[in-house]
Amino acid sequence: MRKLLVTGGAGFIGSNFVRYAIDHTDSAVTVLDKLTYAGNRRSLTDLPQNRMTFVQGDICNASLVHELVRGQDLVVHFAAESHNDNSLRDPSVFVATNLVGTYTLLEAVRRYGVRYHHISTDEVYGDLALDDPNRFTESSPYNPSSPYSATKAGSDHLVRAWVRSFGVAATLSNCSNNYGPYQHVEKFIPRQITNILDGGRPKLYGAGSNVRDWIHVDDHSAAVLLVTAEGKIGETYLIGADGERNNKQVVETILELLGKPHDAYDHVTDRAGHDLRYAIDSTKLRLELGWRPIFSDFTSGLAATIEWYQANEAWWRPQKAKTEANYARQGQ
Ligand code: NAD
Ligand code: DAU
What we know:
Blueprint: E1 3-7, H1 12-24, E2 28-33, E3 52-56, H2 62-69, E4 74-77, H3 84-89, H4 92-112, E5 115-121, H5 147-166, E6 170-175, E7 178-179, H6 188-197, E8 203-205, E9 211-213, E10 215-216, H7 217-230, E11 236-239, E12 244-246, H8 247-257, E13 266-268, H9 283-289, H10 298-311, H11 313-329
Parallel strand pairs: 1-2, 1-4, 2-3, 4-5, 5-6, 6-11, 7-10, 8-13
Antiparallel strand pairs: 9-12
Helix pairs in contact: 1-7, 2-4, 4-5, 6-8
């Protein structure tokens, strides 16, 4: 049985990954999560508790991290401050968690010789023009725009330096925008779904022409498990499911699935420095490791996600009013 430490396992992707790993492997999972505003212990309560140990703590706490990393077979590092809008309000915690936290984990896996997988984002490459025929590949230059993406880019560089300088056995993956259950209501898709369920209207930043490349969170989890099993040490794999759509199209689909008029949304203040378009070319992952996305139909994945938010109001309701109050202060 493989011993697996998952950081950020109470967050959106981390909790879905823990569920996926328990369902698809015989791993014994330890979750290390600080339970910031974005972490939710209830995202893990339905899982078999004999397969998972939960530790509340900070990845910047070196003694705790060393104690937990020692004796593991693998660390998968999801924990991060993840929201671009928050990084524009207060970047400090992004520097602490995303850079110092990653450094702390790298020193621990280096010391105990533990295999490490680093979860990163397509945002490290900056953005693309709407009509650019190219997509991001593993050799695209780093060009992050926001404090969030700059700290994620820095953390990727730390990992590569620890591989080359100290022989740490690490792989990296950079994924596009995830959707699915257990995503915080601050993020685009859950915010619009829960606005409508609350009798309100979706909020589109600017004209709504910005493009994101959507992937279902379970397809991301499958890719990460595959890279931890068969990826080459020191290599980076881009994860994406050919899911490009602009924000206006996504909002119109959500409105249609919920039986509302397709134009029942508001335009609000745009995000400062708003990246125009992300798009992933995942040829390397597909050809070298044989990965394929299962959720190829975005509309049915979105419909299932809407059903999850309809059925799980108790999960998202406690976060909703505070999140909307934060947005309202910025005209969003
Ligand atoms: P999230 O904000 O939903 O969850 C982050 C989790 O990390 C939370 O449970 C939080 O409590 C925990 N955390 C934060 N600071 C911590 C600290 N100092 N110590 C321990 N735990 C801490 O984020 P997410 O959307 O699930 O993203 C997870 C990872 O995936 C991040 O590294 C993010 O950069 C990356 N990523 C996200 C997406 C996406 O679309 N959401 C896409 C590509 C990559
Ligand atoms: O690309 C991967 C990244 O995707 C991850 O690294 C980040 O952790 C994750 O948060 C996500 O970043 P984005 O900034 O793309 O996601 P967000 O959900 O905040 O916004 C998606 C798009 O929707 C973006 O163009 C901004 C827009 N938006 C967002 C909100 C919250 C709106 O138009 N209205 C909104 O209310």
